[in-house]
Design goal:
There is one protein chain. The protein contains 8 helices and 8 strands, in the order H-E-H-E-H-E-H-H-E-E-E-H-E-H-E-H. It is of the alpha/beta class. It has one domain: Thiamin diphosphate (ThDP)-binding fold, Pyr/PP domains (Rossmann fold). The protein has a 6-stranded parallel sheet with strand order 2-1-3-4-8-7, sandwiched between helices. The protein has a two-stranded antiparallel ribbon with strand order 5-6. The longest helix has 12 residues.
Length: 201
């Protein structure tokens, strides 16, 4: 496969599609996976304290989101992560399905690339379907988004589901918005913790 040509359903522009899907980011406590999705969400929120963006901790986003959703059942929790990050710990989807917190939504922004480690092709560009893996794990409510006209329905889904939802959004292998963010884990942890205790966050 020519690595410069995306598969035919990886066509959405993430810089437009991610903000449209997330909408009002203040509606959620957000865990953002590393690399592209961390930049997507810190740029969108302008480094708001209710967004915890990972760096280097590949495979952690879904499990952290699950724990957060269980600990704070009164808040909507949104995990936004990439295909490479989710593939590193895809078994977490089984635990998510068994626990099935109604306030959790997982969005996988799938560009078919490992953006953190050198832009190599990921398994999803070679046929692996993470939505089908989520279904197989037992998550009952899933969507695969490949066209702009599918985004609005998925945006409602991540807000209104009465069980955990999973949205796979296939995007072109292009860069996220350039955004310089704070990579000090202590300061990030403390400000996110403060947001957890602030009912207006």
């Amino acid at each position: 496969m020519n690595s410069t040509v995306p598969p035919p359903d990886f066509l959405l522009d993430r810089n437009e599609a991610v903000p449209q899907l997330v909408g009002r980011h203040e509606d959620f406590l957000i865990v953002a996976g590393l690399a592209g999705t961390a930049r997507d969400l810190t740029f969108l929120s302008q480094d708001a304290p209710h967004v915890f963006a990972l760096a280097g901790a590949m495979g952690s986003a879904a499990s952290m989101g699950l724990g957060l959703a269980l600990a704070r059942p009164e808040r909507r929790v949104l995990v936004v992560t990439g295909d490479g990050e989710l593939l590193m710990n895809v078994g977490t989807l089984a635990t998510v399905a068994v626990m099935n917190p109604p306030n959790l939504a997982i969005v996988c922004v799938d560009n078919g690339r490992y953006g953190e480690t050198g832009w190599q092709q990921s398994h999803t560009s070679l046929g692996v379907d993470l939505e089908q893996m989520a279904l197989g794990a037992g998550i009952r409510t899933t969507r695969c988004i490949t066209r702009p006209d599918e985004i609005a329905e998925a945006s409602r889904l991540i807000r209104e589901g009465n069980g955990t939802s999973f949205v796979l959004m296939r995007v072109k292998p292009t860069e996220s918005p350039p955004h310089k963010r704070d990579l000090d884990p202590t300061s990030e942890r403390l400000r996110f913790r403060a947001a957890l205790h602030d009912s207006t966050a």
